[in-house]
Amino acid sequence: MTADLSPRQAAQQTGLSRTLIYREIERGHLNAYKIGGRLRITREALTEWKRLHAVVARPPAPAYEPVGSRRPDTRTCRFTADLEASRGEEAA
């Protein structure tokens, strides 16, 4: 059987503060037990706690592709139509 950890040892092993370890135990996020007035954390409980707090990498963002105008520029269409109409009148 492996030796269980004190909050201080768990803090050293994870690189976190002892206060944070106590807070996580108090909140019920990290399982611990008390024997003889001393808190102990099983290595399995610490491993599970770290697994639950693992950060999942975000998928890469899609490549930027500019989106075209949603509607045609009616000013340009009208201008073109007016221009063609005036050319037709000039030719006549």
The side-by-side strand order for the widest beta sheet comes to 1-2
Main beta sheet, described? 2 strands, antiparallel
Distance between the first and last residues' Cα: 104 Å
Secondary structure tally: strands: 2
Radius of gyration: 34 Å
The H-and-E topology, N to C, reads as: HHEEHH
- Residues in helices, as a percent range: 40-55%
Task: Please tell me about this protein's structure.
By secondary structure, the protein is mainly alpha-helical. It has a domain at 7-52. The chain is 50% helix and 7% strand. It contains four helices and two strands; from the N terminus they run ααββαα. It has a two-stranded antiparallel sheet with strand order 1-2. The protein is rod-shaped and about 105 Å long. The mean pLDDT is 86.
Keywords:
92 residues; mainly alpha; 4 helices; rod-shaped
Quick recap:
The protein is mainly alpha-helical.
Furnish the topology, listing elements before pairings.
Layout: H1 7-14, H2 18-27, E1 33-35, E2 38-40, H3 43-52, H4 74-91
Antiparallel strand pairs: 1-2
Helix pairs in contact: 1-2
